[in-house]
Amino acid sequence: MAAARKPKKPNINKDELIGYYRDMLLIRRFEEKAGQLYGMGAIGGFCHLYIGQEAVVVGIEACAKEGDQRITSYRDHGHMLACGMDPNGVMAELTGREGGYSRGKGGSMHMFSSEKNFYGGHGIVAAQVPLGAGLAFANRYRGNDNVSFAYFGDGAANQGQVYETMNMASLWKLPCIFVIENNQYAMGTSLQRASSTPALFTRGAAFGIPGEAVDGMDVVAVKAATEKAVDYARSGEGPYVLEMNTYRYRGHSMSDPAKYRTREEVQKMRAERDAIDHVRDLLTASGEVDEADLKAIDKEIKVIVNEAAKFAQDSPEPAEAELWTDIYA
Amino acid sequence: MTIEILMPALSPTMEEGNLAKWMIKEGDTVSSGDVIAEIETDKATMEVEAVDEGIVGKLVVAEGAEGVKVNELIVILLEDGEGADAMNNIASNPTDASIAKNEQPMTATPTMPKTPMAAATVEPDFSPGTTFTKQTVREALRDAMSEEMRTNDNVFLMGEEVGQYQGAYKISQGMLDEFGERRVIDTPITEHGFAGVAVGAAFAGLNPIVEFMTFNFAMQAIDHIINSAAKTLYMSGGQMGCPIVFRGPNGAAARVGAQHSQDYAAWYAQIPGLKVAMPYSADDAKGLLKSAIRDPNPVVFLENEILYGKSFDVPEGIDHTVPFGQARVWREGSDVTIVSFGIGMTYALEAAEALVSEGISAEVIDLRTLRPMDTETVVRSVQKTNRCITVEEGWPVSSIGSYISSIIMQEAFDYLDAPVITCTGKDVPMPYAANLEKLALVTTEEVVAAAKSVCYR
After folding, report:
1. How far is A95 from chain B (nearest CA, A)?
2. Alpha-carbon gap, residue A58 to A20, rounded angstroms
3. Confidence at A5, pLDDT banded by 50, 70, 90
4. What is the tens place of the pLDDT at every residue in A151-163?
5. What is the 3-state secondary structure (H, E, C) of chain A?
6. Residue A314 in domain
């Protein structure tokens, strides 16, 4: 990854930046709360937090329009919040309650929203890649100009089905943006230990798919790169690969002691490259926004997250009859 | 010595073909590699090349001859210096000559019983005035897809060789011409990938039909069939369904070895969220496939290569659908219930016919769909006959038959006069050798023996 950024004036207006700040902060606070609820035993099973990677989804969602679809892996809370899903419904799914998006039957890794075109929430590494291309296939079949965002990690980038999909997506010019969220570790295995070629943005090259490496800790850079990719796909040119270089602060899941990296590495990243601090600096450096304004946003987010946590714990468990529903349409 | 050229088998399951055209005439000199004839099978028209040199002595089978059996003598070549009199011994009796050349002219392929609808058979319930046409299972499947594609633009077909090649087993013959490349889509050989793409398209509300060249190759894609297609409705709390059909030939063909000969009925029938159909006859194949395409759930549709060329009466001029979860009673009987599905029905019906001469009256039930499974019809039948055997090509462990026998034990234990016998494929990978393959498959004789055994005869 590149060295620490120097603050520079972004080509972006204040209100937009404030929006990104708010969205990223919501994800961070939501995930911190989820971690806390996990520790209290309110959330069970697997729980993969998105803390550190917030700029990726927020920057990408800034380029999405009505009808665009998104699909991702099991580290999905951030994606759901960024596309406008209700934090109450997401948190209540984490606690396995009736008020959850899947009425408690999906859990952290399996949530969906037809309304927001969020197609999950998939627990099999890289399965969402062909599924995401399938969403793009439907767009092309229907002749609309929507695109689909298929998110996957640096670990999934080594799966065979990714390349089967890239081949077809390029062959059929599917409007699919392959977003590789390179958070440097596939569970406990670093990119260097798992990938023969670390430049993941070139992984589509053999299929004629353009790719770009992006500073995934900088929401402004993410947005700029995504705009280009989306224009390309929307205009019928075919798929595009975006490698978002990012970093997850927490372990792979809640049960990961993260012994495969040093505490210093994590601390350095948080101190020097934090995505939210970066936007905060941009906003305050311009003088247009002061600490008090940002505090007000922090407070607003805290209310939303506390309300979600309360809702998720107050919502009843699903009725026992739910065991037998939704197996067949 | 004259050279006898026999009707060649152009696919593992070919039993006969038409001699569409001779490319040679008597007196011509042919050498190795020359095209001598065009042969038409139910799948394709193919050229036949000479492998020997000689002078065409006699065209034994006339151009345009239909139903020429594999290994039947079709042309005699004379070697250097031989005269026409050299043919005297053989030309008179070509069939014997062919058998002498090969002791097993494709007999591994089971044949339909001559009269499957004999005395005690049951006609399906069609409204009066319905007319029927003879169709192969292959044609019925194509018609089912085409009819549904004509009425619903969201339905499309995707798979290896479904378009330009006209289908590896010619199920999609003519469909590219009618529906175009947008809706009849040739894929690269990437089952895992294209199954996932199709499931994603189904999430988005389209109705894909995915053809696997055979279900053996669908093992590459089984994660998407089970984890992505079957479970999403449940995991999404009912928000997001997956209206998709996965179809293709399943089970043993003939002499294609272990990796290409496997029955997945029991595998898929275990998965909640999937529906599984395995038709035997052409009318059921058509009716069930149309139902499958309209179903809002993922359907695994298991066909059989050997059945593709078999003909049955199919209702014409109506929108013929068959509901899932309704078994079909092919023969009524009073002494033993034989439960089967798919190609297993061939043995079940043959056995029932053979049992007549033993004085045993067998009731034959075709499950037609394995999920949902109409166990009610089976239990009702067993309450009448007090005996049951099951027939399937799949392996014995955790088979469909073992499930049925457990259901009968739970729901009709007091009616049973004998233990249920499950007739299955043998518990071995499929061997290649013709004799061993025959031993590995379930046979009509085994079904007859099982029926006699439960009748204590």
Report:
1. 15
2. 6
3. low
4. 999 999 999 999 9
5. CCCCCCCCCCCCCHHHHHHHHHHHHHHHHHHHHHHHHHHCCCCCCCCCCCCCCHHHHHHHHCCCCCCCEEEECCCCHHHHHHCCCCHHHHHHHHCCCCCCCCCCCCCCCCCCECCCCEEEECCCCCCHHHHHHHHHHHHHHHCCCCCEEEEEECCHHHCHHHHHHHHHHHHCCCCEEEEEEECCEECCEEHHHHCCCCCHHHCCHHHCCCEEEEECCCHHHHHHHHHHHHHHHHCCCCCEEEEEECCCCCCCCCCCCCCCCCHHHHHHHHHHHCHHHHHHHHHHHCCCCCHHHHHHHHHHHHHHHHHHHHHHHHCCCCCHHHHHCCCCC
6. no
The yes-or-no answer on residue B191 being catalytic is yes
Contact B235 A110 (CB under 8 A): yes
Domain membership of residue A327 (yes or no) is no
Please report, for residues B22, B63, B306, the alpha-carbon distance to residue B70 in angstroms, rounded to integers and kept in the order given. 17, 16, 15
Reply yes or no on whether B224 is catalytic: no
- Across the interface, whether the CB atoms of A105 and B237 are under 8 A apart is answered yes
pLDDT at residue number A10? 59
Q: Do A326 and B237 touch (CB under 8 A)?
A: yes
Mean pLDDT across the stretch B43-53?
83
Number of domains in chain A: 1
Quote the domain boundaries for residue A46.
Answer: 14-309
Across the interface, whether the CB atoms of A130 and B240 are under 8 A apart is answered no
Given a cut of 50, whether residue B97 has pLDDT beyond it is no
Asked if A326 and B236 come within 8 Å (Cβ–Cβ), the reply is yes
Nearest by CB to residue B203, choosing from A111, A134, A165, is A134
Catalytic residue, chosen from B72, B160, B191, B303, is B191
Q: Which residues of A touch B (CB under 8 A)?
A: 69, 71, 100-106, 110-114, 119-124, 127, 129-139, 141, 160-161, 164-165, 167-168, 171, 325-329
B234 CB within 8 Å of a chain A CB: yes
Contact A234, A174 (CB under 8 A): no
What span, in angstroms and rounded, lies between the C-alpha atoms of B140 and B282? Answer: 6
Give the minimum alpha-carbon distance from B290 to chain A in angstroms, rounded to a whole number.
Answer: 17
pTM: 0.90
CA distance B437 to chain A (A): 34
Q: pLDDT grade, residue A81 (50/70/90)?
A: very high
Domain assignment of residue A9, yes or no: no
| Res A2: pLDDT | 45
Nearest by CB to residue B228, choosing from A104, A105, A127, is A127
Distances (CA, A) of B188 to A160, A163, B27, B159: 14, 12, 47, 8
**Would you say residue A86 lies in a domain?**
yes
* CATH at residue A299: 3.40.50.970
Bond prior to A121 in cis (omega within 30° of 0) = yes
Helix or strand holding residue B159 (H, E)? strand B155-159
Rounded to whole angstroms, the Cα distance separating B433 from B256 reads 10
Q: Which of B187, B227, B233 has its CB closest to that of A168?
A: B187
Please provide the average confidence, as pLDDT, over all residues in chain A: 95
Interface ipTM:
0.94
**Could you identify the residue written with the tokens 């013709």?**
B434
Structure confidence at residue A6 (pLDDT): 53
Q: For B329, what's the count of Cα atoms within 13 Å in the CB-facing half-sphere?
A: 19
The token duo for A28 is: 């961070």
> Distances from the Cα of A157 to the Cαs of A99, A128, B130, B284, in angstroms?
34, 12, 57, 44
The pLDDT confidence band at residue B118, using thresholds 50, 70 and 90, is: very low
| A328 contacts in chain B (CB < 8 Å) | 233, 273, 275, 297
